[in-house]
Amino acid sequence: MYGVLFEVLRRYVESTFGETVWSAAVEVTNGQPLEIQTRQNYSTRLLTRIVSAVSEFIGLPEEDIYYEFGITTVQYLTDNGFRSILQVLGLSWIELIEKDSRFDQNPSLLDVSAYVSEKQFLGLLPFHLLLTKDMTIRRAGPSYLCLRKDILGQEFTKCFQIAKPKTNPTFDEIYANRFTTFELVLLDQSSSKSKSSKRTTGPQEKCRFKGEISFVEEWDMLLFMGSPL
């Protein structure tokens, strides 16, 4: 089963029942904490066992958990651009679920990278940033480029400020806070040049974005996926 579904289940359980319930369910079923990689392959049996454990802990029927989990999954995938990806692949949500039910037998069925390239995949996410270890903006969503055309190849701090959480804009610190919701401020292009100007005005805010950070192991980069505030 595709890792993104485990990530959605984790978010649903933690937001609805609390982090303790998720941690306890994973501990009982997996024997250790589960670090989820959205593109990694996982056993379908592990997910069903986690749902069973959550059901037992909170006293809610498994059918109710699966129902809410399904609604959350569709919303999450839609919010993160997967509807567009399915259109590219020529799939419906039902066909996606059918493919995922056969995932253990053939993991490549749901591997987006088998159908679309990295550039095509990221191009479907209008407000994304891909950051290298030296905090260079490797890629940016098309909507960012409409707002500010010069950000590709720039240092992250020349184009953005982190409003939330309170953390230094370094790769390691952002990685350490990757399970926290981030709020980024896009700076006006003139702000990047203000340091060389004699004027001492502060950076001018262009707009803000709220989203989440993921570590893409295959690329060894940080991926921000957000939306405007």
UniProtKB/TrEMBL annotation:
GO terms for cellular component: guanylate cyclase complex, soluble. GO terms for biological process: cGMP-mediated signaling; response to oxygen levels. Residues 2-98 form the Heme NO-binding domain. Residues 116-229 form the Haem NO binding associated domain. Its EC number is 4.6.1.2. GO terms for molecular function: guanylate cyclase activity; heme binding; nucleotide binding. The keyword Phosphoprotein does not apply. It comes from the Eukaryota. Transmembrane segments: none annotated. This is guanylate cyclase.
